[in-house]
User: Fold this.
Amino acid sequence: MSVLFRNVQVFDADHPDGMAGPTDLLVRGDRIAAIGAALDVPRAVRVIDGRSQLLLPGLINAHFHSPVNHLKGALPSLPLEVFMLSESPALAELAPTPREAYLRTLLAAVEMLRAGVTGVQDDAFFLPHPTPEIIDAVLQAYADCGIRATVALDQPEVAELDKLPFLSDLLPDDMRAELARPPAFGRAALLEAYQYLISRWHGAEGGRLSAAVSVSAPQRVTPDYFHALDELSRRHGIPLYAHMLETKLQRVFGEERLGGRSLVRYCADLRLLSPRMNIIHAVWTDDDDLDLIAGSGAVVAHNPISNLRLGSGVMPFRRLRDRGIPIALGTDEAIADDAVNMWAVAKMAGLIHNLSDPDYERWPSAAEVLDALFRGGARAMLRQDDLGVLAAGRLADLAMIDLDTLPFTPLNDLRRQLVYCENGSSVTLTMVAGRVVYEAGRVTTVDEAGLRAEVRAIAQARGQVRQAAEAETARWLPYYRTMYRTAAARSVGLPRRLDTQEDTARC
Ligand SMILES: [Zn+2]
Assistant:
């Protein structure tokens, strides 16, 4: 059915006020058919009164990991390397059933839809490894709830010992031997899993669902596997996700294990930087890294709340913008952001970089933050011709927000009030591919109360397994803590945290 939004304001990044209207916007099928005043009402159309409402491009969560959706608030703030140890200990009992994987995927998808998020890039990891049943469960959840989703298999392929500096020297022999074993589910099995993901799900639901590939991080895979994934990405025109220089320890890793090269330089040397790559975080990048990224056309997924939650540091936003590097925004996983709220991410992106430079004219503007939220997100998904802008011919992924709410009263500056005032509570309707999926306070595709009840019941039943996981974590913790502290004490010449007195020669 067609949908006609009547007398509505339409977000327009190029308009002096940030919006144009009142006007009409007609959706036919999965696309915007027309925008203009007093459009004819076609037959079989649903007319939505848009008075006092604003249509925005749907928000895009450019970086996310669904497998820990059920663990929001579960961990205290910890540095990434200690955090990962606590988050996903290698216990077979932690493997989800397909039903659990389905429900937990829905959990955050519903939260996103309620806040006007229409697209998500899910760098999903699988414990202990991907199977067709769990891949199906994750994708089926996205199929059922109606969000646009791009899903990759974020799976390390080398031994834990090869991914981290110092650990080998710190561990006793028996524990070192445990971490020296590469995952049993190796390159061939992973590529088979990708074959399944792509053949079964890429382009499903009229193109609403798609596959991406993920190396997790360059130091977590072999160059051979990295090249194979890049080839898949090239062949199918799909994004390649790579966490890079999220933490100081990862910068130190380059000094220790890559002959002094940064992870970005390492990828460039492998000829694996490309416009298809999503570089996730890029906090501990120096100017040489940023020049390489800019030259490659890669996009950076910026997750400022996760970077604060894990104490990682502050990405050099202005240095990226100066080079024209496209920036997208993401929550990162629910256990490292907790709220899965892209409005909060946008606000944080609009605030944190004010501390990075005393020159206030170089602080992010609201327009730049919205550009990252909309166009940057579309670019990260490699859908810049379809998403991120409301215009005839584009996909009808949009959020409608009520301007007759406290965040917009009085309306002083739309862009700034979107970034600094709105928290998602003004969203009245979310549409993905022309289908209304959230309206009048409820997600139309999911029994939310039933979902919450079932998730609570499962969490209660799983309590004992979590306790076993904590015991496993405790076994390794002293060594990981020492590794972290050794890296933290190292000067790498980049001021990316408030506590450091690093020299600034290289930044
Ligand atoms: Zn991540």
